[in-house]
Amino acid sequence: MNLFKRSTHSLARLKRWPKIPLGLRLFLLYFILVILTTYLVSSTVMREIKPTVRQVTEETLVDMANLLAVMARDDLARGTLSQSHFTNVVNSYGSRQPNAKIWGVNKQGTNHRIYITDAAGIVVVDSWQQDIGKDFSQWNDVYLTLRGEYGARSTATAQDDPLSTVMHVAAPIIDNGNIIGSVTVAKPNRSVQPFINMSKYRVLSWLVVMSILALMVGALIAWRINGALYKLANYADKMGRGEKASKPRFRVFYEYSLLSDALEKMRNQLDGKRYVEHYVQTLTHELKSPLSAIKGASEILQSPLSTDKKQLFANNIESETVRMQQLIDKLLTLTKLEQLPELEQRKKVFVKPLFEAIKDSFIARTTTQNVQVVISCDPSSVCLGDVFLIQQALYNIFDNALDFINEGGEIHIQVIQEPSYVQIYIDNTGPCIPDYALERITERFYSLPRANGKKSTGLGLNFVEQVVKLHKGQLNIKNTKNGVRVHINMPTP
């Protein structure tokens, strides 16, 4: 029982957990990885720059000290080093001003110090000329070098300033295999600190820039992943509602393309099965009435009848046969239309010529019913779509309007061109649509009784609705003061 309670409590907490989009979750994980990587790399590099620079400096000082040891050997062996040309050169070196600009750092003077000691550790040459004659045998650089070891030391000139340390590297002066003295080259660590700071700044700057770029790329990828998921979800949702939906395309995330293909294949299979079941049922139901009428008329014709009666029932058979043919033709056309996910071709369609052609095709009916057709449309009014489907939809609206219009009535067509769409208003005078039928007026096989007693297939306005949806437009049918208005909103090029 306690286990069940804990499980229920855990499920309740999961339900209360905020729903974070997958793209955002991936980006948060990526963000943490980038920040951790940047921190680890920056801390490691920052920690290694200073000792690396000092190691390189020490290596340079070793080479310089050994070079000077070779140059000073002969004069020191003869005991003439203090008055030699070499000593004058060293003293001149200490007073030089290079005025060099290295990586943006101005170098105004030499910061190397050179001093030479004899075998006893007594300074005989000093580029700074301040410690000549002093005993340096106690310093590690001299002490170790005179004993044949590597001599180096780092000494701080100020105890509370870590940057005041000076690096000393010595090399032995050897004559005939004996160490007769040492050469020490000293360089303050403060002189290389600007380069260390500059290196740290540049490395840190590049790390920050690369991290920002990496985060931007990660954000873009996460956004695309999330957008692709929403496209698939929207596609599946529209398919579930039976709406027209174009299959989303993915150029980068081809795995999503495989999923969208699978969804479309599943939709086609399910739609095909449902269509077969639905149309068999509806077609069977709709054909019962004319078949019954034909059967009844044929049975009556087999009995003795007058010529007028035979003609009446023969005409009845013919009209019901025509009705069945129209029903089958329209149903096949509508089925083909509903199977189209989107238009294969979209072209500019000038609206006024369509209405003029439809008006001419109904000239016999409008003349017989004394109906006036008024077209208020600019010749430049244009929409985007399939000219045949649009013409057929408008034809169905006209045909439907003439079935209900009062004799001597009027059909008024008004077209208003907008920047992104065209508004088409078709008003006809006559009886209004009953309130109970307004919501079902475009439903398949739903029709209202005509004044002339003619029975409709109930597919005309449904065809119009499918054409408008296929063009991504809007259809609205409502009652007006004097009759019925059909409002169509179609996109423009």
From TrEMBL:
It comes from the Bacteria. The keyword Translocase does not apply. It is an enzyme of class 2 (transferase). Residues 282-493 form the Histidine kinase domain. GO terms for molecular function: kinase activity. The keyword Transmembrane applies. The chain crosses the membrane at residues 20-41, 203-223. Keywords: Kinase, Membrane, Phosphoprotein, Transferase, Transmembrane, Transmembrane helix. This is histidine kinase. It comes from Pseudoalteromonas undina.
